[in-house]
Amino acid sequence: MQETAERLRNGGKRIGLIPTMGFLHDGHLSLVRRAREHSVDCIVMSLFVNPTQFSPDEDFHRYPRDFERDKNLASGAGVDILFFPSLEEIYPKRFLTAVSVDTITTVLEGKIRPTHFRGVTTIVAKLFHLTKPHVAVFGQKDAQQAVVIQQMVRDLNFDTQIIVAPIVREADGLAMSSRNVYLSPEERNESTVLYRSLCLAQQLIAAGERDSETVRTAMNNLIAQMPHTQIDYISPADALTLEDRPLLETGNRILISLAVRFTATRLIDNCLLTI
Amino acid sequence: MQETAERLRNGGKRIGLIPTMGFLHDGHLSLVRRAREHSVDCIVMSLFVNPTQFSPDEDFHRYPRDFERDKNLASGAGVDILFFPSLEEIYPKRFLTAVSVDTITTVLEGKIRPTHFRGVTTIVAKLFHLTKPHVAVFGQKDAQQAVVIQQMVRDLNFDTQIIVAPIVREADGLAMSSRNVYLSPEERNESTVLYRSLCLAQQLIAAGERDSETVRTAMNNLIAQMPHTQIDYISPADALTLEDRPLLETGNRILISLAVRFTATRLIDNCLLTI
C-alpha cells in the first residue's frame, strides 16, 4: 500500500483516503463522493475493524462484518483501492507506540470510552503514513472524532487536508450507522427520537432560547419518553474545544451531541449550529 | 518547509534529515556525511532546542546556542537547507497531541527523565511530517533515543529509513556532546573515564566474562575513582528491548550504556557489542 501510494504521488496523482471499519452504508459512500469533489485522482478506502478503539466490554468481536458486500459497494461507488490490512500487519508483536490527544478526548465519548480516541488517533496516523493521502474524509456522525483528528493533524503537521462530510440519515431521520443492525424492531422505531431531539433543540434555539440546561432538559424529556432508552449524555458544547457552553451566545459555534443506549446498542448523533 | 519538501519529492529528489538541537560539533557533521552515503539529493538539518524533552529542572534555558556558528558549520558541511522553526511555529497555542512509546522509554534515561522520550518522539514525528525525509540520521551517542525512534517509525509506519551513525569522540575518547562545554577543566579531565570504563567492559567480555554484574561493578569502581563523578546508571542490556541482561550469552546483541553526573553536568556514553 505504501509503495503504491508513493508511486501515485510521484506520478502527480492526488490521493483521497476514506478510513472505515467496513459494513458500509450510504454514509460511507457519501464520503467517496465528497472526496471526488476535492479533485482526487485515486480514492483509497481502508477497511479495518480496529481493536484498540474498542474497550474490553465493547462490541469488537460482534462488530458487523461483510467483506464481499463491502467490496461490491466500494467498487460500485468508485473506490479505486480497497485497503484491508490484517490485524498482524497493523499491530505486529511488540507494538509499543501511541498517538494521543489531550483534553478534548476526555469529555463526551472519551469520558465513557477512556481509551477510545487513543486507539483512533493511533490507527489514523498509521493509515495516513500507509496511504499518504492529500485529502482524508471523515463523517460528521462521529463529531468528536472529527475534532480530535483535526487537532492531531494540526499538532503533528500531517500534510493531509481533512474533510468532514455531513451526516447521512435514513428517511425517518435516524443517522446511518453500522451499529443500527443491532436494534430490535421496537428499538429501531424508538431510535428516531435522537434526531427529533436534535430538531427540537434547534427549534428552541431558533425561538431564542439561550440557556443550555433548558435545551438539554427538553431533549432529555423527549428521549426519556421512549421506554428502551438510557441517556449517556446530551451536550451543547463549543464546537472546537468541546467545552460546556452554559450560555449559548450569538456567534458561538455549537456542537450538540448525544449518546443514548437502547439496551445493548449505543447510538450517537449530533448537530452543528451557529447561534 | 513542508511545501519545499513536497516540491523536492515531486521533482524526484531524495531528502535526508539530520535533526539537531544546534551547537554543532563534529558528531553532528558526521551525520551529514552519513546521509550523503544514502544517495540523498537534499540534506535538511533541523535546528530546534525542543523544550518538551527537558524536564523543568533541566538545562533548557542554559542549553548552549550559537546560531551564526551553526549556520556556518552546517553550510560548510554541505547542508542544503537549515530548518530553524520558532517555538511558536512548533508548539502553537492549544497544542494537545503527543506521540509516545511504551516500555523501552521507562528504563535507563527514561527512568531518570520520565517525560523526555515523549518530547523526543513528538518532535521527531512533527519534523518527519514537515521535512518528508526518505532518510533520517541519528547519532549512536543517544543510543536509547535511536532505539525509541526506530520503534516509533516501525509502529507508526513512517516511510523514512533511520540511519544510526557511530559516536564521534575527542582524541582522548570523550564522546562529543554539546553539553561538554559545561565541564570545568578538572571535570573535563576526569570525563575520559566514561570511555575508559566502556573499553574496560569490552576487554572483560573479550576475556570471557559473562556476568553482567561483574562487568558493571568493574566499570563502577573505575568511574567512582574520579572525585567529581556521580553515577546515574551503568547498564548492560539487550540492544533492542533494553531489558537487563544478567547473563551475557553468545549471539546476544548488547548495549552497554551509562550516565554520569559531573556536578551539574550529566554525560552519557555507550557501546554496542555482539557477544
Can you offer a commentary on this structure?
- 2 copies of one chain form a homodimer.
- In chain A, the strands form 2 sheets. Chain A has a 5-stranded parallel β-sheet with strand order 3-2-1-5-6, sandwiched between helices.
- The first copy, chain A, is built from 10 helices and 9 strands.
- The first copy, chain A, starts with a helix and ends with a strand.
- The longest helix of chain A has 16 residues, at 116-131.
- In chain A, helix 6 crosses helix 7 and helix 9 (192-206) packs antiparallel against helix 10.
- The model of chain A has no long low-confidence stretch (mean pLDDT 97).
- Chain A has helices at 2-10, 26-36, 67-77, 87-90, 109-112, 116-131, 143-156, 185-190, 192-206, 212-224, and strands at residues 15-20, 42-47, 81-83, 97-101, 135-139, 161-165, 229-238, 253-262, 265-274.
- Chain A binds chain B through residues 2, 6, 9-10, 12, 92, 94-104, 121-122, 125-126, 129-130, 132, 151-152, 154-159, 241, and chain B through 2, 6, 9-10, 12, 92, 94-104, 121-122, 125-126, 129-130, 132, 151-152, 154-159, 241.
Any idea what the radius of gyration of chain A is? 19 Å
What is the third-level CATH name, the topology of the largest domain in chain A? Rossmann fold
Globally, the shape of chain A reads globular
Residue runs with pLDDT of under 50 for 5 or more positions of chain A? none
- How far apart are the termini of chain A? 44 Å
Question: What about the largest sheet of chain A?
Answer: 5 strands, parallel
Spatial order of the strands forming the largest sheet of chain A: 3-2-1-5-6
Pairing-aware structural class of the strands and helices of chain A? alpha/beta
Please give the most extensive interface between any two protein chains, plus how many residues each contributes. Answer: A-B, 33 and 33 residues
H and E string of chain A: HEHEHEHEHHEHEHHHEEE
Number of helices of chain A: 10
Tell me the quaternary state.
homodimer
Question: Kindly state the mean pLDDT of chain A as a whole number?
Answer: 97
Percent of residues in helices of chain A comes to 25-40%
CATH superfamily of the largest domain in chain A: HUPs
